[in-house]
Amino acid sequence: MTGLPLRQLLMSLGEPLVELQAAPAGLDVPVRHVSILDPEDPPTAAPGELVLAIGARGRAALPALRAAGRARAAAVAVKLDGPGQADALREAATEAGVALLSVRRETRWEHLDSLARTLLTGADDPDGPGGPEPGGPTAGDLFSLAQTVAVLTGGIVSIEDTSSRVLAYSRTSETDEVDDLRRLSILGRQGPEPYLAKLREWGVFSHLRGSEGAIEIAAHPELGIRRRLAIAIRSGAQPLGTIWVQEGSRPLTDTAEQALVGAARVAAGQLVRRRRELSADTRLTQTLLTGLLEGSTGPQSLATHLGLDLRRPATVLAYAPAATDGRDAELSRDEVTGLISVHTAARHRGALLAPVDSRVYVLLPELPPGLPAATLRDWTQETVDAARDHLSIPLRAAIGPTVPGLADVPASRAQADRILDAMGRGGVVPDVAALQDVQAEVLVSEVVALLQDRPELRDPRLTALAGYDARHHTRLAESVLAYLDALGEVRAAADALHIHPNTLRYRVRRAEQLTGLDLAQPQQRLLAMLQLRLPEH
């Protein structure tokens, strides 16, 4: 990967997101990769990397700067709390020989990560050694297109997808008058909802859907919105996004609308190609990931495809929705999958999802060594809580063991499945669990499943007791099981069944009389405790 000169990366990202604080090696240093350094990770870097030091402010960022300098990284990006921090970090960056970038406090890290990766992708050949197709666009071309439109219209440009997420934008100068809508959209990656609601109220989006040309949005100084032109990006009748041009300190050019028509057609070609590439890449990733989880494909294919380290720790999380109260099962699965993907990506940028039947598996590759089990549990619990709070869908989640490398991922998935299977049979109470939390419950559930599949292993007297209950509408089997679970404590068992203790004593004696069982015998008690857990009981 040849990389993108730091100078060009800074020009594309611009003042809305980052500001250069120090560049001891100059601005022609090539940036080849982007990495996210989590506060819990040891400070590491690689040659040519832009390191996003999340959560490291002030002196806490010094280890990241020193590690980046030793590794000959290109730059380190941090958020600053005050000018005093900038002075200390600039000095450390100069000593380490690595560039220092400060990130606006309002900027979302995942947004900066996405945009920087897009620019770096566009700086390199997307089609391998043979080179790109003649005239074929790359991901970074959207930024180039935005800058071209800015020159032709005399305005400030952003390109968004159909969900109002910013895909690319033009550079701004110190004399440009950027309004709140533009500034907040770029900092937050997406147009702020109060402004979007106003645009919907004014009919802007409906006009865009029905118009082939550019439309004008008048200035609203009271809302901090300047005059704009906008045009829909389409491929046939399919909407792909929108190009917005904000009027700055000077009026837009007379040919601005014509320029937008051409730009929308160019953008359509780029977005269609990007969708096709992403779709093909997503399908391949899903195939390789599913094969790895099932053990039918070795780890090398996925590692090569995604550039993963085979020897770093990994974990599989497994999610299964419980009953959806009559909701469309496919819709619920799509909603749950989307929610899991968002929450997991927020915690681990390399997370991979594979929906398989009614379950959703998450592979967390390249985990930092020694990641606390409590951290994985917290991540998983956040997702389960979000599904309950936002989708009203109860989720069960199992945490597979952390394995030493990708080759052992099938074992992690198998153990997560064991836990979910036990949850589905009612054998595990928590909604999030690892095997060490519920070892006994899982093993008992698996023994009960064996009895379910092997009728010859069952005691016919207990089978007869279940049949008696079914014919006479009695609850003898249930009462015996409650009595055994309470270790013979009659009052506790009766309270669990909401009956009088004498009623329970009668039912237990009646069950022994009908079947010939002797619950004073340990072996018979053990078998009854297992067999009476079968679903038909």
UniProtKB/TrEMBL annotation:
Residues 301-421 form the CdaR GGDEF-like domain. Residues 476-534 form the PucR C-terminal helix-turn-helix domain. It comes from the Bacteria. InterPro entries: CdaR-like_regulators (IPR051448), CdaR_GGDEF (IPR041522), PucR_C-HTH_dom (IPR025736), PucR_C-HTH_sf (IPR042070). Residues 120-140 are annotated as: Disordered. Belongs to the CdaR family. PANTHER family: CARBOHYDRATE DIACID REGULATOR, CONSERVED PROTEIN. This is Transcriptional regulator.
